[in-house]
Design brief:
The chain has 592 residues and is of the alpha/beta class. The protein is built from 21 helices and 20 strands. Helices cover 43% and strands 18% of the residues. Strands 8, 11, 13, 14, 15, 17, 18 and 19 form an 8-stranded mixed β-sheet that branches. It has a 6-stranded parallel β-sheet with strand order 6-4-3-2-1-7. Helix 4 links the parallel strand 3 and strand 4. Helix 2 packs parallel to helix 3 and helix 3 runs parallel beside helix 4. About 6% of the residues have low confidence.
Length: 592
């Protein structure tokens, strides 16, 4: 027995030593990573190499381990939209940057994000510098971005995708039926179709009509802007796609969607020629991440010099829930705290609320809305909408002084619903599990998932949802200066694009986040100011424990499921919808 305990003790000591040594090594690695984060050098006549092969978030993650293959997480830093736009803006006036090379990209983000980057590239071209785009495969998203380039090249054996937009919904009712689960729906809104995947096997007529409307609006914008960039009539482009004209690389060249068919070595040769390099010389190239850290800014924007006056940008990105959030989700406590801090800080003269959210909990949305409304009373509040600002995302926006969206932002969806599963068949018939008990009142077990709702219980929940919809439409009416009846007529859960929303008064004008910042400065009578962003981002080191474990788990699930990860996320979302009444988008809109 003594020998046994000796071995156990030795094992514990060994594990402890390994842990301590490993921790010291980890700290050393982190130190190296941090020291390697110093300013990069940008050579004269450099090309800014731009490649988007990841989903672009609103802000760059605060990750000191970004350059390390740590637990299979990011091997390189993936810049957020904020830093992408900053880098392009900086390159416009940097004498060392001669042009931009748009390399193979997939644009795995919403269309409004692509729109902001595209507009930044258009502004960059005003400097007279070149943009060259190249790809072996042009998805429609990347082609939309690349269409602004001076020269658009495709690999001679490559693929050009130009076929029109489609939107697909995954319906779960059949799976729920097989499991013996009934989704009991309580909702307000003819178009509030978030619940349709749970109770139908195909789109309702009302939903099909609204999807046709906003998809058509987005496609019209897509064709119009490509037409302007390539000097091709919009209707002609529509016919190209509708008749399947673009099948081979030669077709793309014939119909002037691209400027040439070239291999990568030919592209590199052209870049050398444009930057004055000889054949045997290497191209001076710098990536977005390196360039952002280069410190080679030759001019200072007077609006961003050191100043006691500040404009705060509060980022509200992701699903809305109660409690704390993170870079990819909106926690009502975290965002409310950030907005309160902005409101009480005398140095902050205006607030820009950047919203990129499909909505979520109606209660959490209302908590944030209250803080926006209170802030509006003491300083200007401007909302900038990203890819999506719908349902709860619109609710937290509607109290602002002004709302600015991209033409292809998804917004509206003014409606509310609740979902309560009836799992009686699953428990009784599939699992052989039954329940029995006592209660002190008629409604003491309201919400029990082991049985169906009674008519009286359903009436109670419907009254709750009706009350929530009434609050929603009143808030929008007050914030937008409309009657509640009018808001109801354009509400009912209907989804709109930013371009459509301007016409019906849900959005004030079209523009990007920089337009929103400029609007906030004008309203606060500021010429010089400093930008500050909230909420404070947690670093990877701060996330050690449950937070980091969740990221690691999500990484491996994504790697295993691939494109099916979206369905996995949808099923997870169903469970979260069953907690409280929801102000949520109809579903995760996927446009192909």
């Amino acid at each position: 027995m003594k020998q046994f305990f000796k071995f156990v003790l030795a094992t514990i000591v060994g594990i402890t030593i390994v842990f301590v040594v490993g921790f010291v090594i980890l700290l050393g690695i982190i130190g190296v990573a941090a020291s390697g984060d110093s300013a990069a050098t940008v050579d004269a006549n450099s090309v800014l190499h731009v490649k988007f092969d990841y989903a672009i978030n609103e802000r760059t993650p605060n990750n000191p381990l970004s350059n390390l293959p740590f637990l299979g997480l990011d091997k390189k830093r993936e810049l957020g939209l904020n830093d992408i736009l900053a880098s392009i803006k900086k390159a416009k006036t940097d004498d060392k940057i001669k042009g931009i090379f748009l390399d193979e990209s997939y644009m795995m983000n919403g269309q409004a994000t692509t729109e902001e980057i595209r507009n930044a590239l258009i502004d960059f071209k005003k400097s007279g510098k070149f943009i060259i785009a190249y790809s072996e495969i042009y998805t429609q998203g990347f082609y939309y971005l690349a269409s602004v380039a001076d020269k658009v090249y495709l690999n001679p054996k490559g693929i050009m995708e130009f076929k029109g937009f489609s939107s697909e919904i995954t319906f779960l009712k059949g799976a729920l039926d097989k499991l013996g689960i009934e989704a009991q729906i309580i909702k307000v809104g003819t178009y509030k179709s978030a619940v349709e995947p749970l109770v139908l096997t195909k789109m309702s007529d009302a939903n099909r009509m609204q999807v046709t409307s906003y998809l058509g609006s987005m496609y019209d914008h897509f064709l119009t802007n490509i037409g302007k960039a390539r000097n091709i009539n919009k209707d002609t482009l529509f016919n190209y796609a509708n008749s399947g004209r673009i099948q081979l690389p030669e077709d793309a060249l014939k119909y002037k969607l691209i400027d040439g068919l070239k291999y990568k070595d030919e592209i590199l040769a052209e870049l050398k020629q444009r930057t004055g390099k000889k054949d045997k010389e290497d191209i001076a190239s710098v990536g977005l991440d390196e360039y952002l850290k280069s410190g080679n800014e030759n001019s200072t924007d007077p609006k961003e010099v050191s100043s006691n006056n500040r404009i705060a940008v509060v980022y509200a990105s992701g699903e809305i829930n109660g409690g704390d959030g993170d870079d990819n989700s909106i926690g009502s406590e975290t965002i409310s705290k950030a907005i309160r801090k902005v409101r009480t800080d005398n140095k902050v003269k205006a607030l820009v609320l950047r919203v990129n959210s499909p909505g979520g909990s109606s209660l959490a949305s209302d908590v944030i809305w209250r803080e926006v409304m209170l802030t509006k009373k003491v300083k200007p509040v401007i909302v900038s909408m990203g890819d999506v600002a719908a349902s709860g995302g619109y609710y937290i926006s509607c109290a602002a002084d002004s709302i600015i969206a991209e033409p292809n932002t998804i917004t509206g969806s003014i409606g509310i619903f609740a979902v309560l599963p009836n799992m009686q068949k699953l428990f009784n018939d599939k699992l052989g599990v039954t329940f029995d008990g006592v209660k002190t009142g008629k409604f003491a077990d309201l919400g029990d998932i082991s049985r169906p709702l009674t008519a009286e219980e359903r009436a109670i929940l419907q009254n709750n949802v009706n009350h929530g919809y009434d609050d929603f439409t009143k808030a929008v009416a007050a914030g937008r200066g409309k009657t509640q009846a009018y808001v109801n007529s354009i509400g009912q859960g209907r989804v709109w694009t930013g371009a459509q929303a301007v016409k019906i008064g849900l959005v004030d004008r079209l523009g990007n986040i920089n337009d929103a910042i400029a609007s906030a400065a004008k309203k606060a009578n500021l010429k010089n100011y400093k930008l500050v962003s909230y909420p404070e981002q947690k670093s990877t080191l701060d996330k050690f424990g449950a937070g980091l474990s969740a990221e690691v788990k999500a990484h491996f699930v994504k790697a295993e499921l691939g494109e099916n990860y979206r369905i996995y996320e949808q099923i997870k979302g169903v469970t979260s919808m069953m907690r409280t009444p929801q102000m949520r988008m109809p579903y995760d809109i996927v446009i192909k």
